[in-house]
Amino acid sequence: MADIHPTAIVESGASIGGDVVIGPYCIVGAEVALASGVKLLSHTVVTGRTTVGENTAIYPFASIGHRPQDLKYKGEASRLEIGRNNVIREHVTMNPGTEGGGMVTRVGDDCLFMVGCHVAHDCTIGNHVIMANNATLGGHVAIGDHAILGGLSAVHQYVRIGRYAMIGGMSGVEQDVIPYGSVMGDRAKLSGLNIVGMKRHGVSRDNIHALRTAYRLLFAQEGALNERLDDVIDMYKANDPVMEIVTFMREESVRGVCQPKSGNAG
Question: In terms of C-beta density within 10 A (0-12 exposed, 13-18 middle, 19 or more buried), how is residue 25 classed?
Fold first, then answer.
């Protein structure tokens, strides 16, 4: 049975799973689905066509599922899908999708959204992502698994951030960040690879060495980018982490790939 505080408002039609806890002064909309074990601590609003996965905890004054901050949005029946085991702290905002972006915003599993984070319309967030205090995503942003966004960072619309990437605090990210990359700056530039993050997640020493060599080749000043990509493929076509970066860089992109400040790997 759900534990619903008498001051909470749960609109007729909402789907409430077993062991859900809805704290004081929370509001749950008619089209919301809360899976088993979800906890709304207090003063939380979850509305719209929003699903929240098992054991996700949402803290006070979070605003989840309200209409997108997009002037093109005309009330279409878009959705917000939040996965399992997430922690969504105070004052976090998450918006559903729009017709121009696939009609859905998706958040994966086991993520941490610290105080004041914003997830805009049509974003796709992987698993084990951490967004530190007041990190902000524009619309249509894609974040890979295990990426970390530092406090007060801001990501431009349509930017892609690869797996295991690290975004430094107070960085403004206008271009795609390669998997395993680390960026920083008010207009973020690549500062190298996220070596600390890779070690923490058990990436082997051989793979880290290969990634370092490939990074230097990919961002060298000599030759055209396609030629450098071909050279890296010839050297490391059997190395999955390196090929992940190559594939990422060859995919179609609206924003282009973030480069080192010097224009090469240094």
Answer: middle
pLDDT confidence of 265, banded at 50, 70, 90? very low
256 flagged as catalytic: no
Q: Is residue 122 part of a domain?
A: yes
Shared domain for 111 and 227, answered yes or no, is no
Catalytic option among 108, 139, 168, 197: 139
186 part of the active site:
no
Q: Which domain holds residue 116?
A: 3-140
Q: Distance between CA 237 and CA 55 in Å, rounded?
A: 40
Question: 266 pLDDT band (50/70/90 cuts)?
Answer: very low
Q: 145 lies in a domain? A: no
Q: For position 262, what pLDDT does the model report?
A: 73
Q: How many domains does the chain have?
A: 2
Do residues 18 and 96 both lie within one domain?
yes
- Which CATH number goes with the domain that contains 40? 2.160.10.10
Q: Which amino acid is at 224?
A: A
Res 135: pLDDT: 98
* Residue 195 predicted with pLDDT over 80: yes
Domain stop point among 116, 140, 164:
140
Q: Can 121 be counted among the known catalytic residues?
A: yes
| Catalytic option among 37, 108, 118, 121 | 121
d(C-alpha 160, C-alpha 27), whole Å = 33
Separation CA 29–CA 88 (nearest Å): 18
Identify the active-site residue in 110, 122, 145, 176: 122
